[in-house]
Structures are given as structure tokens and as C-alpha cells.
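A quick aside before the break. I want you to see a complete sequence-to-structure record at least once, exactly as it would be stored in a machine-readable document. Don't worry about memorizing anything.
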Amino acid sequence: MKLLSGGIPDKDLVKLNKMKIRYYIKWLVCLSFIFAISACKKGDEYKKFFGDGELSYAGRPDTVIVRPGNQRMLLSVVLGSDPLITKIKVFWNDGRDSLEQAVTNVRGRDTVPLFINKLREGAYNFVIYTYDNKNHSSVLLNASGTVYGQSYASSLINRRLKEFGYSADGSKLNFSWATSNLDEVGVELLYRHRDGSMRTAVFPPDKISSSLSDFDANTNLKYRTLFKPDPNAVDTFFVDYAELTVPAFERELDKSKFSLYMLPTDATTGHGWVMPQMWNRNYDNGFATINQMPQ
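That is the input. The structure line, written in C-alpha cells, reads:
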């Protein structure tokens, strides 16, 4: 019997190698069995959600436009090209709150408005899914935005009116405004029209001067400033009205239209003074009188 360098007969070495091979084969069979079971389980899970055959997903929304508001949010969901979409679901507050809305007659890039009401002020993250007529879900789409309310509204103040008054000819009221406040979108003026109706005029925030010409001069005016916390905001915030008292209109009469009208006892002249010197803008000379009434 031939011995190898390790002292193991060659016949026994062959037997040992065969045992190792059988051992490895058993392990390969076991591993294959485990992989097969795992694959079956995964397949069952997929079938549970998607059924037999290929995986199906509903068309994902193309975009979501977030429009914040006063204790509410408007999500304008722009759909993709999937004509089988039948509903939209929105989740927020880590999935604890949700909203579902049916969708019909979908055409490419239709926009579906979703109002979410009764929200507290603060930042929100929304998760949006679409579903087709077989209840297949789309891949999620995230959107985030901030809801505004009383806390924001209480921080707003009216735009300061520096001065206002009549134009030189009395036909207009001229307003001079301070620089516009943050988020301001305009100043709303409430006034009575000459025909007796109540009307409003809105002055843009980038103007520091404005005018009004069709008002009833015998009434007062009110104004308030309008705000949007975001250019896309669906709601406009405003402060309380401030009341303006319209000043009495005063102007200097046109002296070129004055003319001399002499009464019988009027003095025509005295020391070189004459009656037109009463309105000639020269305050260093006078006019003539006589010691007789009337004069």
C-alpha cells in the first residue's frame, strides 16, 4: 500500500474526497431549496399586491402645484398621460390623515384641484398617489408647503399713508404712500361714488402715488392693505379698514377773473391807491376809502 507524504494511504484519500464532494452537493441542494422558497414567498407577496403576470403601476402625476391658503391648502395635481386614472389619494401627517378624490375622463395633463381644509398653521409634507381602474397604485409623488392663519394675519399692518388731499383744480384726491410692506399685493380703497353706489379701487404695491376722481366729496373713505404670503397663495389676507376724513377743498381763486365794480360811495383813488390793489398780491400798499358808509 502506497503512503503519501502526510501518512494517509491513497485509497483512504480517495474515499475522503468522495465524502467531501457528497457533503458539498448536499449543501448546494439545501441552498437551492432555500432560495426557491424565498423566491416563492416574494412572488406571493408581489401577487398579493399586483396579481399574476407583470407588475402594473398606474401613471404617476406629472407635477403638483402647491398653493397655500388661510388654514387650508390647494394642491393642483397635473396628471400624466394615463387615461385609466380613476382616483387620487393624498396623505399627510405621516399618513394619519388622507383625502381621496375621484377622477373621470382623464386627458393628457389634466389638472385636478384638491382642497385640503381645516389645517393648522405650519409646514406640511404631502404624499400623492394616483390609482387606475384596477386599483393599481402609482409611484408616490411628494409635495410640501406651508399653511398660514391667525398667527400670520396678526403680524400684518396697513401701509402707511403719508399724505392725501385735493389736486390744484379740485377734481381729484391725490394719495402719497410709504414704501409697500412685505408680501403686500395692493391697497384697497372703499368709497362712495358720485352716483351714490359703494365702489372699490385697488392701488398696486409698486406705486407710491395714486389718485381718485369719481368720489362723492361729502363722504369719508376707508382703506386696507392686502397681502399674500406666497405668490401662489390661494387666499388673500387683509387688515382692518382705516377711515380717512376727506379734507375741505380750499383753493385760491383765479384773480385774473376779478373785475372792478364801483358803488356810488366808493373812493376811486386815494394816495394813489385803487381797489384792484386788494387782489394784486402786493401786500405793501393799500386801497382807498372815504369816511362814508357804505364804502
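Two observations worth writing down. DSSP finds two helices and 15 strands in the chain. The first strand starts at residue 63 and ends at 68. We'll return to this after the break.
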